[in-house]
Task: structure prediction
Amino acid sequence: MQMVWLSSKTTVPRAMAEAVERERLYELLRNNQAKKITVVQAPAGYGKTTLLSQWFSYSTEPVAWISLNTSDNDPIRFWKYVIHTTSNITQSNMYNTLSSLLQSQDPSTLEFLIDSFLYEMSQIKHRICIVLEDYHLIENDVIHQMLVQLIENLPDNVHIYLTTRINLPLPIAKWRVKSWLWEIDTQQLCFTFEEIKQYYENKNLFYKEDKLLSHVLNTTEGWAAGIQLTSISKIASSKNALIVDRTDHLQPSITDFLLQEILNTLPSSIQDFLLRTSLLQSLEPEICNILTNRTDSYTVLIELEKKGIFTVRLNSNQPLFRYHHLFAEALQIELRHRYSKEIVSSINLEAATLLHNKGDFIAAIEIALNESEYELAESWIIEHLVDIFQTGQTATFARWVKILRSNHYDANFEILVMYIITLISTFEIVEAGLLIYELDEKQRIGQWMDQEKNRGIADIFVTVKAYGLIGMGKDIEQATEIIQKQLEKGIVGSRWDHIPMQYNLFEHKILRTSIGSKGKFWSWEQSIPFAKLFRETEFKDKSMTAFSYGVSAETMYEKNYLDAAQSELEVAIKYGHSLQDPGLFIPMYVLKAQIYVLNKNYIAAHALIDNVMDLVSEKHWLNILRTMKARCYLLEGDMLRTEVELRKAESKQPFWLLAHVRFLLAKAKLEEALKTIIQVKTKALQEEQVSTIIEATMLEAICEMQMGHKDSAVKALHEALSHGSAYGYVRTFLDEEASLNLLKAYLKMRQKNKKISWNSVPLSYVELLIENSREADNLLDLLTPREMEVFNLLVDGATNREIAKKLFLTEGTVRVYLTTIYSKLGVTSRAKAILLK
Result:
């Protein structure tokens, strides 16, 4: 299901005709051009929105305007609106390009999303302005972290505007010091005497002398909303005092004034219209007609706007309006005061139902929860649960579940099981474990899993529990036993069976994902029984099983079981294409190319990568493939092509960064290489990414050795071996050409030094690595890359003519190559040479 886009959230509010042209503030905004961000901060009613809407009405720069509300406290929903709106105003394809990343709340995915968004904006040739209105309504720390990441890496052509009532949980002081920030505050937003005078003249309000305007200025202290109130209630002519309290919360004095001097002066039918529609975040005449039993809502809204009754028309092709926040809050207070609880609830639920029927189920569920209509909210959550997961809005779903549970509502089992999946996906493992225990207890007491209506979701719960154990690095034997019992009972289908699960959205290696346990793989003996339960049963066609082949292939490669790895990856590739999931087949093709490289079959590796690049369009997958090409060129010794591919693929992903490190090491830029290694390693340690920790630390050891720091090199190698020995890593060490000498030096040091602190790495593990390194250092290593290409084609059974054609050589040149190859290998015939393979 496509997300329902609310145009009222992404249109620039239209300034009123009588609005004052505030040239002094425009000048401030003109001076912000060299900054990254402008923050307009003041309490409610100071004209923050009006100022920016006026400013952009004169600007030719495209502006992505997003009006925020509490429903936007979901990282995926928040950034979907930001990226979709930015894509629209720049007439670019960036939303479609990034849409595959807008599905997961995984922290790594969200960080990569911002990096990708930054890249896409940097490709736009003109200036972009992004306005986040009412950012004070955002309380989600993840969104704050992502916004900080965005702002601190913002391209020069992008400027962000934030409006807020309160101080924001952002590093404002740091941005001031760096001169990234431009601020407009309460004092600057306050109306001057001349501006009040201009406003009254624009409104055609009569006043006898300037003293009256001075009275308004002194009374309101330049507060825009207070000045507007005086003009509506004609206080200016009566000199009645206006009591205001410009705090963030709506105070009784303001509420009373809004109600007594504005609402109560209107016809009762209009009062009823205002009260009944006050809950709507955007006012569409059609919805207002149904909610108020009228047919003239458009006329009413136009009249309210003309009279300045705190009603704003949005700049949209459709007739869209909204109430000023202060006015809406006052109306909602009066709604509850004037009508009984039952009538208020009825009005709100009717509004919720209208929104739900219109497709805005997010707003509908929010209203139902606010009205404590938990059963209705639950029914809508269940109805749209699949849509919520397919659109990635699981943070919103989690917040709803927390509201239900905090109010002791016994939520539906499907909701609770999907909540467990949400918790695991965001690595809230402890809370997920507690809920699993809770559902196990409910099964023990009430046997909910045995009830026919729950059997489908019960099956999902069992599978989630088993994979949760594995993902948490716990007992795989227990997980195997759980699945075995489930199979004995028989699998029951559910509506989730055909919903593809996104296990990998951007990683080059499946072992870096949660389904790959971040590189914490099990021994072959432990994992075979578990794998068989999926491969030889009703689970065999599920995406989880498909990814298990990918995890197995990478694990087998890492343990140096190359034939087994090759077999597993071929199956995984078939699954990946069947599921149309690049998150599976791209890492497998990268692994296949790695195996080609291991055999020095560079032509096959490049051909494979080139063919795969035609299968995908997303930049992050293309960057991974280009990075693999760069690694191939580097091993061939082609520094120029290596640099070209690295420039094309540049990103902040560990795969690219460590490929760049190897390039820097080859160019002897050791200080720069070490700095990048430490950056990657630090992040990997924070994320507990075992495979990346080992790889980065191994490269750290090599770099230190090249710098002549032998002690530091051995220490770094020990750290890498400590992590590697826990899981049996082999190829990460063997794939680095400089590893053998380092391992020998380490073994020699260990044999001399008997300190207990080194015993975390078994000597037998080091000896195994050295032995495997020596086996790799065989006769075939005597061949040049070109000779190896000829040899591989020879092994494949190609004739001299076929070899010549594929390598663009003459048959005579091929014969010369074969003579040299036979000489190096110590053989006298084709057959004997092939036996060495």
